[in-house]
Amino acid sequence: MTTTTRLPAAAPRRGPTAPRSRRPLSRDTARTGLLFATPTALVVGIVFVIPLVLLIWMAFNDWPLIGASTPNWGANFAEISDPLFVKAIGFTALYTVITTVLLSAVALGLALLVQQSRPGTALYRTAFFIPAAIGLASTSLLFYGLYTQKDSGLNELLGLVGIGPLNWISTPNGALWSTVLLVVWRFSGFYMLILLTGLQAIPDEVYEAARVDGASWWRTFVSVTLPLLRPSIALMLILSVTGSVLAFDQFYILTSGGPDNSTVTLVVALYRKAFVQFDLGTAAALSLVVLAFLLVLNLIQFTLLRRDNTA
Amino acid sequence: MKRTKILGIAAHHVTSTVLALLFLLPLLWTLYGSLFGQGASPEGGFGFANYQSVVEYGSGLGTYLLNTTAVALMTVAGVLVVSAFGGYAFARLPFRGRNVLFILTLAILMVPYATILIPLYVLLGWLDLQDSLVGLALVMVMLQLPFSLFMMRNSFEALPKELDEAALMDGCSVAGAFFRVLLRGTVPGLVTVGLYAFLSSWNEFIAPLIFLTSGDLFTLPVALVSLRTGALGSVDYGALQAGVIVSALPCLLLFLFLQRYYVRGFTSGALKG
Question: How far does B107 lie from chain A, in Å, by closest CA?
């Protein structure tokens, strides 16, 4: 085989980390590797890389839904000062902060509650998680019924503990908090599961040592559990922030961005620009801005996460 | 001392039970409403009339279920094929451009997909895949790819190297070793990947909302939203609740039966991609 004669030259270049390349099968390996990776390359290339390039091109064009596009070199970006879009940025930021804080707190509480394996814990865990198995669109329709049906019993139930009756989604504030409640119900079990995997990775000896030192429950929680849980908490924060910044389903279905456009999120604004006003170019430019912003945000979060892991 | 411990355990169970009921309540309310509430039966009380109206809505529940199932199955099949081959290549077969491709795939996670839906819409139009279930499934495969590829790469890496070597020793080619020996070892990973692909494509809302324009191609979530807004002025809450139950049931059953595989997705570290 020709490969065997070429090997002495190839070996030092690859170095000692790739001793397998000395095997005669390495050519079969490389060829099969390329072949097996082709479906991945095709999907990534056609459905991800091309759209990404197209997004940038569209952002610099006047691009109606139907008809020819013409370059307008950046005029689309002026639309960023559109009051509806500016308002959407503010609202999305507010919603992201509220949701992330509340979700993290509830998820952490649930995770601590079902952390130890006792009789019944498996059932509790399943109950907390079940909402996460249902789609966000179905969840939004479910809560739409709960909030708007006259005799749904929700206000009657709250009346028993002396709250309400509430207006739910008919006022701007009500619409925001109703959506937050929906999202907490739908996602806290999911984040609980992320935190649980983190909690279970903490070795028992660490708790044992804390007990020997006479640390109280609170002290153990703050000085042992929380620091060791940081990677899981960081993952939860990344997922929650990204998810909230891109919120669409729950607002499109539950509040339709109302009342009075008070709950229009970034993605709802993008959707309207593209598919209600048929201005794809501007929508692409706004998408590009959102993308760049999230990319920076993600990079910061990833760097922080990495630092946590090595510390 | 012993008494406070018992009290503590009791308090733990009471808190957990109350919370568990709070989490289950909205679902139970919806189930009850669909069977006993408004419109459930012409005489009032228990009946399946709400389910009957969902079955008859628009192009018929059968059509929507079929569309949703078709998209979900195409997505699952696509994700399984792409990520099984890809995962093996990334775990065991060094090839040119491997790192670049891996980073590009993970970059899908960094680019929020709502922002590339607009160019995807245009691209699918060029490919004549707009308003098509195949086009929708293709996009869903791409969205699931980072998680799935990472998961499958980890699954193949977890197999002992001796397994490959024994198969190659016995005269298998690299591809032969993959099909006859290694694939069997990654079944739990494949089930996890398939489960996630099914749940996410079954429940996807914004992509079918944008890509599908013909009513008879709608998937269940899009059809249910139009069921709500369709009736002029008044909302048929009973039918809406029945629809929510119909769309949630397959996911709940799958999750309850495959819970173990679902949790694997968390513990494998694939979520951290």
Answer: 9
